[in-house]
Amino acid sequence: MEFIRQNKDRPFFCYVPFHIVHAPLQAKDSDLKGVDAKVTDKNKRVYAAMVRTMDKNVASILAELDKLGLRDNTIVVFTSDNGATREGSNLPFRGGKHSVFEGGTRLPTVIHWPKGKVVEGKWDGLCGALDMFPTLMAMSGLEMPKTRPLDGKNIWPALRDKGASPVDSYYWSWHNEDAIRTADWRMHRFADRVELYDIRKDIGETTNVAGKNPEVVASLQKKMDAWVESMGAALTHLPARAALDAKPAPEGEVLELSITVADKVKPKDSFVVPFARHEGRVYATDSIEYDIAAAKGSPLRGFYYSPFKGNANQQPALYFKRGEGIDQFGREQISGPEPRGGAGVWEHRIVGLCSYGPGILPGQAIVFKGAKPGNYKLYLDNLRIRHADGSTSPIWTNGKDTRAAKFKETELFENVKIRTVDVKDVGK
User: Fold this and answer.
1) 353 and 401 fall within a common domain
2) Contacts of 30 (CB under 8 A, 6+ apart)
3) What phi, psi does 134 have (nearest 5°)?
4) Secondary structure (3-state) at 57
5) N or C: where does the chain have the smaller number of CB atoms within 10 Å of the terminal CB?
């Protein structure tokens, strides 16, 4: 409000990113007293009180505009960054924060500008945060900079004239799926299926109509692929692009891991063997690649490489899990696929890191899950991050990169040994 007072005599832009409503859930007693007594859940009461606090502060800003005589000539936009958490409500939409269903991406948005004659009531068109920049520039009569391309569209003419939105579609990628939203459809693409919803008739996304609309699915997949290509995204839940594939090239020292899996092991039992650390950052356009082989006489399935975070002894959070960590051959790493070519043959694997960037992949491990009883011996080399420009950042290339965290053998997984051997001695 002080900023508005200081700039009341000239054009200004004021961005107010309220931290509330957001974790941690905290509220003043005075605001809690105003919550309806019928709301008995503690978290929901605090959540409601935080909403009241935000409302009061928005009202204060609007009152200041009125006091200064600026209300009619000030564009006010109220919106959010994602759908509500479980303490709030996204009904009638499916999902919420941390999802790319309608409940996670559809936002309450109000635009107020009396002098500009914004359409009264509801405007039914696609508009997102990325469209605010070109739209506000147009509403202010300013020219857009021509220094870089933008995905955002100017929706001001559509708002002013109650016309159709110039936005064709929005696209998201999130963990084990990517999704697209058009005016009529919403489609979600997973490793093993697609889900299509007629968003005009089924705003709650309750009925998957992909099987009845193959032409729509094909059209939307084409749009999604164009989005992916435009950004260079290395999707985690779909096979890596063919251009990224390469042949295995182990050389010098390679990592050798051996382990005995006991007879009484069950498919659900797992064991994590950490062997390296990595502190460098990864981005949504990065992939991870490595060479892997199994020794002759060793079982060929039931093991895989995965980054992880946490403590290897205390149920670490594995990055590659169901529906994520799909290699260029379309295989989930969690399934423990055997190297193509069989025993003693090196295989090169590559997996997109879109869902984990920006971020880090701290722990590096070989995971045994679904392994059958037997004595396993496997090899790994050339573990590295491949960037969008083709350059690479090494994680494990020889013995000096071995930094295994502590782990405890169990009666199911024992005789664990990690060492480096010359590639010429692989299998001996």
Assistant:
1) yes
2) none
3) -65, -30
4) helix
5) C
Q: What is the CA radius of gyration of the chain?
A: 27
Check: CB of residue 313 under 8 Å from CB of residue 406: yes
- Which of 134, 152, 167 is the last residue in one of the domains? 167
Residue (of 288, 316, 310, 315) closest to 380 by Cα position:
288
List all residues 6 or more positions away from 293 whose beta carbon is below 8 Å from its beta carbon: 248, 250, 339, 344, 345, 346, 347, 378, 379, 426
Q: Give the pLDDT of residue 399.
A: 92
Question: CA-CA distance, 182 to 184, in Å (whole number)?
Answer: 5
Q: For position 114, what pLDDT does the model report? A: 84
Indicate the length of the chain as a whole number: 428
Domain count, the chain: 3
Residue 201 buriedness (CB in 10 A; 0-12 / 13-18 / 19+): exposed
What integer pLDDT is reported at residue 385 of this predicted model?
A: 95
Q: Would you state the structure tokens that stand for residue 202, as one six-digit string?
A: 């089924």
**Same domain (yes/no): 162, 177:** no
| Residues in the chain, pLDDT under 70 | 116, 242-245, 312-313, 427-428
Can you give the CATH number for the domain in which 199 is found?
A: 3.30.1120.10
Tell me which H or E stretch contains 158: helix 156-161
The model's pLDDT over 388-413, given as tens digits with 9 standing for 90+, comes to: 998 999 999 999 999 877 788 899 99
State the pTM of this model: 0.90
3-state secondary structure of 397: coil
Paired tokens of 35: 């919550």
Q: What is the dihedral of CA 291, 297, 300, 306, to 10 degrees?
A: -50
Contacts of 79 (CB under 8 A, 6+ apart): 107, 108, 109, 110, 129
Compute CA 380 distance to the chain's CA centroid, rounded to the nearest angstrom.
Answer: 28
Sign (positive/negative) of CA torsion 202, 204, 206, 211?
positive
Residue 336, Ramachandran bin (φ over 0: left; ψ between -120 and 50: alpha; else beta)? left
Domain of 18, in residue numbers:
2-167
| Contacts of 166-172 spanning 24+ positions with Cβ under 8 A | 167/125, 167/126, 167/127, 167/128, 167/131, 168/223, 169/126, 169/223, 169/227, 170/105, 170/126, 170/128, 171/223, 171/224, 171/227, 172/100, 172/105
